[in-house]
Amino acid sequence: MTKFFITFALTILFYFTTFGQVENSTKTTKRINTYLSELGKAGFYGSVLVELNGNKVISKGYGFSDKEHSIKNDPTIIFSTGSITKQFTATAILKLEMQDKLSTDDKISKYFENLPKDKENISIHDLLRHQSGLESNVGSDFDKISQTDFIDKVMNSSLLFESGTRFSYSNIGYSLLAIIIEKVSGTTYENYLYENLWKPAQMEFTGYSRPNFDNNKIAIGYYKDGKVWGKSTDKNWDIDAPYWHLKGNGGIKIQQKIYTNGIKH
Known about the structure:
Order of helices and strands: HEHEEEEEHHHHHEEEEEE
Number of domains: 2
């Protein structure tokens, strides 16, 4: 996501916390409740789920999902994970490496044809650690663009520095990783993440569109000055995911409904 939407992402954070074995769960739960209540007073908007020793002890919403209409957050509200999406993309790349389908040492020239000379030595590892030299963005998050046009635009952009020599945050680097995931796996980005990451982890309510989210339950985003930004699903959207300026680097949604010990929450 672009820097313009960082506040939006932070405003509607979704927390999922599972603790290990805790001896005094009552005392720990009380301390967490106190902390979260104070955090809510300080302006935290979000939904929190806490499990202790396998038991759900906190499942609450804080602040508003729609401030203008005084609709409060609760455990059923759907949030955008913002750039936390990148962690799913990175994990998917490492999963493909575990499956011997790629190596993080691979140059991207293995996956993209006719690269400009300055981009031939960029590796998957460079993309993962934001050391590719690529710009952060070559368009706005919701600008309509095909995969072919996106790749062309990226490859025709200027590098900020020689790959591997410095750090510079790059959204488009993670969109390229999402394209590599699709090329290597032979399926869509979202489907690969679901089958290999979310389904095994019982994260049935995570994704772009696969969970068939109820649009009425999606939290409203806001700018830094408090003006309404809206919902990502109200912006320009491809058939089942964002266009490539955002896909793979931001925009994945998550809802607190989960499975614990086979029991749906």
